[in-house]
Amino acid sequence: MSAKPLKIFVFVFLPLLSLLVVNQVTQNSIAFIRTILAAAPILIVLVVMIVFHVGGQVAGLIGLLSGLLVAFQAFGLTSNILIISQVKGLLLFLFVLAVFLPALFLYNIVNQARGIQSIALALENRIQDRGILLIVIAWAFSGMLEGLAGFGLPVAMVSPMLVELGLNPILAVAAVAIGHAWSVTFGDMGVIYQTLISVVKVAPAQLSVFAAIFLGISCLACGLSVAHILKRLNKWPIVLVLALVMAFVQYAFVMLNIAALASFCAGLAGVSAAILINHIIMKSKNEKSAPMEWTPSLKMALLSYGSLTVLMSLIAIVPPLHQALGKISWVVAYPEVTTLRGFTTAAVINQHYYPLLHPGTSILLIALISYFLNKRAKLYSSTNLMHIVSITVKAALPPAIGILSMVGLSFLMDHSGMTVQLAELLSSFFNAAFPLVSPYIGMLGAFATGSNNNSNVLFAPLQEGIAILLKISPAVIVAAQTTGGALGSMIAPAKVIVGCSTVAAQGRDGEVLRKTIPYGLVIGLVMGIVTMLFAMNN
Known about the structure:
Elements: H1 3-25, H2 31-50, H3 56-74, H4 79-112, H5 115-126, H6 130-148, H7 153-164, H8 169-179, H9 191-199, H10 204-229, H11 236-255, H12 262-284, H13 296-317, H14 319-325, E1 330-334, E2 337-338, E3 344-345, E4 348-353, H15 359-376, H16 385-416, H17 418-430, H18 434-449, H19 452-469, H20 474-487, H21 493-501, H22 509-536
Antiparallel strand pairs: 1-4, 2-3
């Protein structure tokens, strides 16, 4: 056995096994031991990732294994409940994967044709004010890219662009890490939001209102933070205008039930508004902007994502089209199950899946059309479809494994009563002050797992349970959870490490975190206060 697995066994699993033995010897008479055991799987995931630097895919599997031990030994889990919980988790994972893979596939199709680079160059060409340009690239443009394909890609791609514009590599990574955080929940073509509404019982229509408002406020906070870290705070009036535009567009798309495009279109609106503002400034100075160069790569990139926006918007807002596509559905039912300790999970009579209304279907269709149009326009030198499929699968595999194990753990804890046990403890400890710390719990999950998605899977059901016990609006608290998880992206080591690797600053991720953590903590406090205010009035 190598050193790291041995240390994990000694410092993680031996204490867990000891607690299980004590729990059995005392015949489960000590309540706080069961509470510690309920928290153990989540704590183990956090410890093995933070202390032992284990990746999310392995940490998730370790957490799931520990969850199985605890659930069987201390919470009365049965094989029937295990099967049902994991089937639910698997179906959610497939639902998420059906968006994640096509979104990444489309991104690679456009990127291999130099479409993303063309958009960045066009942006640099249209905004002559250096201060505005730096802020927009680190904030709005990175948010737009997060809308297309998340999981660290914006930090990896945008940081080198800022370095090319003369920024210090550490400052570049920090600025993008902070700047893109507002767009994470509705990013990656809605994968994270789809997962969120699937693991909680809050009505999506109610949750989306608070999530869009909270993330709109976060958008302004991230923009001002980027301006501050870049020493361009004198541009705050422009940041305020752009934030209002981006927050409104994101809110509008979410309310129109087009959450999959909310971050992308909000970022695009911010970029477009910045170009317009730059034009007004140049005109006031009697200066002319350089003529726009409409390269084939730029045209095809805009066509790809423009057509996707139109298609998904039509499906969402044209009732006859929506109804026609909704006629094809798949219905799943789950029976009521009860643990040996008497904890019951209610039956699910009719859970519908609509394959033609699923965002992944539209994304995949546009991706394939885009590939053949790019091929016809001779935008690929040696790249073929199988190569793009290969790099897509290679990039998607690690986060996919992590998502699968985290989702499995979340459903296991929920069906065995462990989540309820934790909710009762935290609700009694924080009581009415809980809304203040709710965003920080989301941030902690993202910091540890490197993903808002995993943070939501682990903590959203828990926070929902606490809200119910404290008689606070669950929609407000779950929105605070995912807002905190999004903001946690700026302090997630996994994303920072990826960004450092693309600007030749390997091993300097600690320097970046020293810059981003203060901003994350301050914005988290602001959102905690906002959450408290909303909780008091809802």
